[in-house]
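Sanity check

After download, print the first record. It should look like this:
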Amino acid sequence: MRLALYLPNFRNDVTVKELEDLTALAEELDFDSVWTLDRIVVPEASDRGELQFPFGMMEQFPKQMPVAARGQWLQGWPLIPWLAAKTTKLRIGMSITDTPYRAPAVLAAEVATIDNLSNGRVNVGVGSGWMPEEFAAASAAHIFPKRHKHVRETIEIMQGIWTNEVFEYHGEFADFESCGFGAKPVQSPHPPIYFSGLKDPKRSASRIAKYGLAGWIGIQDTPDEITKWKTEIQRELGELGSERSLDDGFDMCSMIWFVITDEPTDQSDNHKLTNLFVGTADQITDRLKRYKEAGLTMPLLWPPFADVPVSKTLDDLKRLKHDIMPKVDAM
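Expected C-alpha cells:
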C-alpha cells in the first residue's frame, strides 16, 4: 500500500505556505503522490443549502459545500506546475479534473508540458463533474446533460495527442483537423489516467477496458465498498471480453478524511460519513489493515475542510508514516 496526500487547497482559508509545508513533508516521508482538488466556484445557493444536488450527487451529503461562497480557497489546476517545481520525487495530480470545464486539446497539451516540467511525474485524474451551477459558471451548462460523453472524448483526445506527432479529431465537443501540439509527455506511452467513478461500476469498467486506465478513485469508501467496487469492475471487465486483472498494477484509490485523535471515535457504519480514518492510532492501524486486505492500493489522505490546523495534520502524517504504516506493512 502506497500513501498519497490530498492537499487541502479547498478551504475557507488556506495559504500557499501551508500547502508548501504539507507537500515538503509528503516528499520527505516518501509518499507516492500529492493531489489537488478541482473546485471552480461555490455558489451562494450553497451557503443556504440550496444547491440543485448534494455533493457528488451522493444522497447522504447536504446540498451545501463545506466551504463558503466567500471562502478564499486556491484553484487546483494552477497548483500542478507549482508542485512540479517544488518537488523532485512526488507524483502530482488533481483528483479529479472535471473535463467539461476544459477544452480537451488544450488540457492535453498543457499536461504534456507539465509532464516535461516534472520529468515524468504527472498523474491525470478525470471525471464528469456533478454541479450544474459550476457548469454554468464555467460556460459549460450545455455540456451537463452529456458530461459523461465529454469525459470519453477528452480521454481519446489526450491519448491521441500524446502518442501521435500530429492528430485530428472529429467529435461532438471537439472538431479539428490534423495539428501538432508541441512536446510529448516524458512518460511512455503517456501519463497514467485515473477515473473517478462514484456510482456505476459498468461505466468504470467500460472506460478501464477501452482506454487502458491506470486507476479508479472513489470517495470515503469503506473496505467492504472497495471490495464490492473491485469485484464488480472485474466482473464487468470479463463481460466486456477484457483479460485485464485489477490485481496486475491497477490502482484502487479512495479520498478519505484523515485525523489521528487522542480518544477513540465512533467508527460504526454511517455510509459516506463514517469516520474511516478519523480515530486513534490503533483504530487507524486496524482500518488500514482491512483496507489492505480489501485491495485498496493507495488512500488519498484528506485533511478535513475545517477545525484541524495544518500543524496538526503535519504531526499526524509523521505518526502515520513512522508508527502506523510499519504495522500495516508487516501484515
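If your output differs, re-run the checksum step. Summary of this record's structure: The mean pLDDT is 96.
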